[in-house]
Amino acid sequence: MSNRIAEKVKVAGVVGAGGAGFPTHVKIAARVDTVIANGAECEPLLHCDQHLMATYPDEVVAGLRLVMQASGARQGFIALKRKYRTATAALQATLKRQGADNIHFYHLENYYPAGDEFVLVYDVTGRMVPETGLPLHVGCIVQNVGTLVNIARAQQDKPVTHRLLTVTGEVSQPKTLQVPIGTPIGQVIQWAGGATFEDFTSSIVLGGPMMGRLARSLDEPVTKTTSGIIVLPPDNATVRALSRPLGSWVKRGRSTCDQCRDCTDLCPRYLLGHDLEPHKIMRTINYGLTALPFNVTAAVLCCECRLCEAYACPLELSPCAYYKEVKKQLAAQGWRNDIHKRTDLTPHPFREFRRVPTQRLTARLGLTKYAGFECPLDPGTYQPQRVVIPLRQHIGASARAVVRAGDRVSVGDLIGEIPEGKLGARVHASISGTVQEVTSEEVVIVA
Q: Is 31 helix (H, G, I), strand (E, B) or coil?
């Protein structure tokens, strides 16, 4: 039975909807004793997971049960913020109706990054994921609630063709809506009433304001992992930070870092006991010290939550930018991690007092104006005339196109297959129409 569940998930092209995009059929094939449904949605301004839990509670619970069944888990937890009262009520009603005594709730307070896997596993179970480890190493699977819905639908032979996402910020009608994968983000913004000012192309955030990135153009397509489209003024603090090049971060760091260690004291990984001290990489790189390479390779411990640059540092510096670049260089050099694998971890005694309230973080990001937007779920059906579907929307190898220009396809038809022997995910048509173009990177379909 467990193999059948994973196989259907593989056929449907399900990947982690929370942002990483790891192929789900591989993840749920592990053997664990606990599965955690991640409904924290800790990024400011996003609403899609909240609406999903409130509107599709049966599928969230069904997906959780399926992962428990596939992995042999004895217990499951639904972790969501205490303030998500509507979602909690809907899920509680579903569990009561089904009589699920091995699925429990864990309510989180409104802090960031509550949904980080390492943080969530410790808060829910008390288990410490090893440095550079996985929840699997302590008997857990963490699955985003959006992924769970897709897992439930996969058992009904429904592939992943659409994405629920939030459109907010400087748009006329902030909302949460479901759109076909491959839809240009400019089209989605128009479905939200359009931007409230003209020159907004360079200040669109894809994903959340903390771990998201700036869009490259209005033609960039929605993917399986796109959780939000946030239109912001060009001078917004979040836009300035996300657009600042590495050279600028380094120049600012060398001239102004005073080694106050606020970045370390608020780092979620450091507070879990990991050997990650952001202020030390600032010292090592800014001042050319070479006697402490351990501080540099510790970059592999960074979860890139951006708290150090967006909230902790009083001088607006970014250890996170350093860590990202170091990780790229280590990967390019083929560096193997043989040192950052500690398992004897002890949380910092002040950890619970150093959690960052989302409300204060939102203010620091210059987003308080938008925090009150409800972004209601729009049940409408949206259909673009043209989609550009990337063949790589996941961790692993790009899918191999199995269609050619001129082919007719319907919604749900397979257009990209996992290469033989590779880690990857299938890709399906999100609209019905004619294949206009096929490259090694994408498939273009015209309705």
A: coil
